[in-house]
Structure formats: structure tokens, C-alpha cells
Specification:
It is built from 5 helices and 5 strands. The protein has 163 residues and is α+β, with helices and mostly antiparallel strands. The chain has one domain: Histidine kinase-like ATPase, C-terminal domain (Heat Shock Protein 90).
Length: 163
């Protein structure tokens, strides 16, 4: 029933794939639930299953939390979340101001160690492990100005195998 509603909504809205939705929000944890829910609703209107939307919501929650907690060093810090939606996938790119050198090192190490569990990783690295499990690709880029960008690709699966 929800799929029928989503199909009629998307046809009324004349969605043409691919399209992009970008959001900028203050580096404050209180904004994340609204951002997460907004992305889930966009996916459902774009005919992704509720299960796919919910699991994508988990990804958004984890990457936004990491960006705020580890990437925001000033009171006026902003987070940018770019979402590229295609018929068969969504790509998330989140950018923050970079955090401390130690946080950047830990982020890069957590992203590089796809299956390694270490004492140093403990709870702090579990969020990226969840993101990795729910997505096909996870890349971390730290540019020359120490700005951090995390890029994630999550592909649509058929309804029986929906991750």
C-alpha cells in the first residue's frame, strides 16, 4: 500500500532521475533527526522501499553524527550533505571543516580498515562499520586545507534481497 502511494506521489511530482538534493545545517546534533527523516522521505517519494529508506536513514545518522562530533571545531561550523539520487542508487557526500589531526587520522584509519577490529577502534569506529555494511562503497577524502569529505554509495537491491 505504501508503494502505491509513493508511486502516485512521484508521478505527481514528475521526478526525473538522476537528481540532487543538498542540505547545509549547523554543526549541532539537534538538527540530525530532521535531516535523517527528510532523506528517508525523499527516498520513499522516489520509489525506494521503506526498508531501503530506513537503512539509508541509519547511514545519514551515522555520517552526520561523525561530522558534527569530530569535524566541527567552531560554534559557527556547518555541515553539507549532498545526495545524488538515481533510479538504482543514492550517493551521499558529507563535508565538514575537518576536525583535529587526531580525529582525521582516526577517521582515515577506520575507513581503511574495512574488516579489522582493534582495541583502538572500539565504539568510536563502529558507526563507520555500520555504514560500510549498509553500503557498496565508502571513501574518505581529506584535502590540502584539512576539510573532510565522506562519500558513500548505496545501491537499490531487489525487494527480496534489500539490504
Amino acid at each position: 500500500m505504501a508503494t502505491t502511494e509513493n508511486n502516485s506521489l512521484s508521478s505527481c511530482m514528475n521526478i526525473t532521475f538522476p537528481y540532487e538534493v543538498s542540505i547545509k545545517f549547523p554543526g549541532d546534533l539537534e538538527y540530525i533527526p530532521a535531516v535523517r527523516k527528510f532523506i528517508a522521505e525523499i527516498l520513499q517519494v522516489s520509489n525506494f522501499s521503506p526498508k531501503f529508506a530506513y537503512r539509508s536513514e541509519i547511514i545519514v545518522d551515522e555520517i552526520c553524527n561523525n561530522a558534527v562530533v569530530y569535524g566541527c571545531q567552531t560554534e559557527d561550523a556547518e555541515i553539507e550533505l549532498k545526495n545524488e539520487i538515481s533510479e538504482n542508487r543514492i550517493e551521499f557526500t558529507i563535508k565538514d571543516q575537518g576536525g583535529t589531526k587526531d580525529n582525521q587520522r582516526r577517521l582515515q584509519k577506520a575507513a581503511d580498515n574495512s574488516t579489522e577490529t582493534s582495541k583502538e577502534q572500539d565504539k568510536a569506529g563502529l558507526g563507520l562499520e555500520i555504514v560500510r555494511m549498509l553500503s557498496e562503497r565508502l571513501d574518505v577524502i581529506i584535502d590540502d586545507e584539512n576539510l573532510t569529505s565522506v562519500h558513500i554509495v548505496r545501491k537499490r537491491e531487489d525487494e527480496q534481497n534489500d539490504k
